[in-house]
Design a protein that fits this description.
By secondary structure, this protein is of the alpha+beta class. It is built from four helices and seven strands. The strands form two sheets. Strands 1, 2, 3, 4 and 5 form a five-stranded mixed sheet that branches. It has a two-stranded antiparallel sheet with strand order 6-7. The longest helix is centred in the C-terminal third of the chain and has 9 residues.
């Protein structure tokens, strides 16, 4: 049995149309891409109302067991699959007990409408990671590094760190209490 040869590309759409090549192992994919790669599984292409419409659109690239159209894809080309997804991502409204006609719950909601999407499994070329990223706002707005010369950067790094806001008082644990006669003391509660 041969291994599946997954496409090497930056996106799922590129993996379908113009991959850099195909590789079975991560080391082969990294050599093809000339950079680090990671395995990804993403949806691509349009949504189809039925499975048959999706199989017709991607004819010859997916296994098709329908009578008169049976296609068996080679083992190394099995990187595409179809999946059924909900058309809308909204959850149905919560149901309330009805207590009518001897039934506690009302009739269930209709099943949501579904669509068929193509799932592409491929080796995704990793993008270069930024050197640093500010996650929380700083006490003062950060200056652009391009605007700062070496002397200004050294001065800014020499400044002491200051908190954005004052530290909050410590919490009392679940099994600790403050006695009424001495509220400044925290005692364990048994």
């Amino acid at each position: 049995m041969s291994a599946v040869r997954y496409p090497v590309a930056a996106t799922a759409d590129a993996a379908l149309s113009a991959p850099l090549g195909r590789a079975a192992r991560e080391s082969e994919a990294a050599a093809l891409a000339g950079a680090a790669v990671e395995f990804a599984s993403e949806t691509a292409g349009p949504a189809f109302p039925t499975r048959e419409a999706a199989l017709d659109a991607y004819g010859g690239r997916l296994d098709d067991e329908r009578p008169g159209r049976s296609v068996a894809v080679a083992a190394e080309d099995r990187y595409l699959t179809l999946t059924e997804l909900a058309a809308q991502r909204r959850a149905p409204a919560a149901m309330r007990p009805a207590f009518r006609a001897g039934r506690r719950w009302p009739k269930p909601h209709e099943a949501p409408a579904t669509v068929w999407r193509l799932v592409v499994r491929y080796w995704r070329v990793k993008a270069a990671q930024p050197l640093f990223q500010l996650e929380e706002p700083a006490a003062r707005p950060p200056r652009r590094l391009q605007e700062m010369d070496a002397k200004a950067l050294r001065e800014r790094l020499a400044e002491p760190l200051r908190p954005v806001k004052a530290q909050q008082p410590l919490d009392i644990g679940l099994f600790e209490v403050r006695p009424p006669e001495a509220p400044h003391i925290v005692m364990p509660d048994e």
